[in-house]
Write a structure and sequence with these properties.
This protein is an alpha/beta fold. The protein is built from seven helices and eight strands, in the order ββαββααββααββαα. It has one domain: CBS-domain, CATH 3.10.580.
Length: 196
């Protein structure tokens, strides 16, 4: 074809469909399936992100719009500062902050309630490649988390990156059954709350 030639066109017939992105994690898995089958690979799927200055209401609307239960918190892309999930949006902690700071809920920001990077646990991507779904479930249970981050090295650099994320909800969906969890205390406040 000549470089200046236009491409041929045609009219679309009735009942033409629009392409839908496929959720690669719709297929069922078993406890013995490869762990990477329940991981959302962020090299293939765009990470759902928010800013630390985003209001909690805006973060919730973003989660609803994107159909996710967790957002990565980034100040300057692509540096991760933490994460926020649906459990961080409402509850005692938020009400306590409202009372302590004499604010309205609408004035709370993601930075006020997010889980900071220093508090997040991650597994190595190389370990995920040889692990099973059963290993992933055991890890989620041990840490009492709804999400598990997967990290690897940045090619050609000494830096690390979050390569993927495993969601307990996604694992349950793919297994076709709930995963019983035991609540794990991460802070002194959590310990007091669990004992009350």
């Amino acid at each position: 074809m000549h470089p200046d030639s236009p491409l041929p066109t045609h009219r679309l017939p009735p009942a033409t469909l629009i392409a839908q992105s496929r959720d690669a994690q719709n297929h069922p898995v078993t406890f013995e399936s490869a762990a990477v089958e329940v991981m959302t690979d962020l090299t293939s799927v765009k990470a759902a992100t928010t800013s630390p200055s985003t209001s909690l209401r805006q973060a919730e609307q973003t989660m609803i719009y994107l159909g996710v239960r967790m957002l990565f918190v980034v100040g300057a892309m692509p540096v991760i500062e933490g994460l926020i999930d649906v459990n961080d949006l409402h509850g005692e902690r938020q009400m306590r902050l409202v009372q302590q700071r004499n604010l309205r809920y609408d004035e709370l920001r993601v930075a006020d309630v997010m889980t900071e990077l220093s508090m997040l646990d991650a597994v190595d991507y190389d370990a995920m490649k040889t692990a099973t779904v059963s290993n992933v479930i055991a890890t989620l249970r041990r840490h009492g988390r709804a999400h598990l981050l997967v990290a690897d090295a940045v090619p050609g650099q000494s830096a690390r990156r979050v390569r993927g994320v495993v969601s307990r909800t996604q694992v349950e969906r793919q297994l076709g059954m709930p995963i019983p969890m035991t609540e794990v205390a991460a802070t002194l406040y959590d310990v007091v709350k669990m004992l009350a």
